[in-house]
């Protein structure tokens, strides 16, 4: 649903899963985060990610990379650096897409930051 731009339907389905005795696992949360970021809802994605960290399920490497890219694409460099530090603590790596965004940002903006 997220990929077909039916975010409202995806949110309703996501919210209804517990009432149907279905578990919202890491993959489901990650898909929802990706959908939120795709349509530019950074704050909503940050809130959902914080909920994952607080109440579970535990984010995986894919989840972290999706959030990292979303933060970078929205020029939230300080938050991206904090998230990258958390990834290092969890022994997670940046994927090729995340590294590509870092390179693109350095090339276009010339930011004075180091990830």
From TrEMBL:
Keywords: Repeat. InterPro entries: PPR_rpt, TPR-like_helical_dom_sf. This is Pentatricopeptide repeat-containing protein. The keyword Transmembrane helix does not apply. It comes from Kingdonia uniflora. Belongs to the PPR family. P subfamily. It comes from the Eukaryota. PPR repeats lie at residues 25-59, 60-94. The lineage of its organism: Eukaryota, Viridiplantae, Streptophyta, Embryophyta, Tracheophyta. Transmembrane segments: none annotated. The keyword Transferase does not apply. NCBIfam families: PPR.
């Amino acid at each position: 649903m997220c990929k077909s731009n039916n975010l409202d339907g995806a949110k309703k389905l996501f919210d209804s899963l517990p009432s149907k005795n279905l578990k919202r696992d890491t993959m489901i949360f990650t898909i929802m985060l990706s959908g939120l970021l795709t349509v530019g809802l950074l704050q909503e994605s940050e809130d959902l990610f914080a909920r994952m960290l607080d109440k579970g399920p535990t984010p995986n490497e894919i989840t972290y990379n999706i959030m990292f890219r979303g933060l970078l694409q929205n020029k939230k460099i300080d938050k991206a650096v904090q998230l990258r530090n958390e990834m290092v603590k969890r022994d997670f790596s940046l994927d090729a897409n995340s590294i590509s965004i870092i390179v693109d940002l350095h090339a276009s903006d010339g930011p004075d930051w180091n990830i």
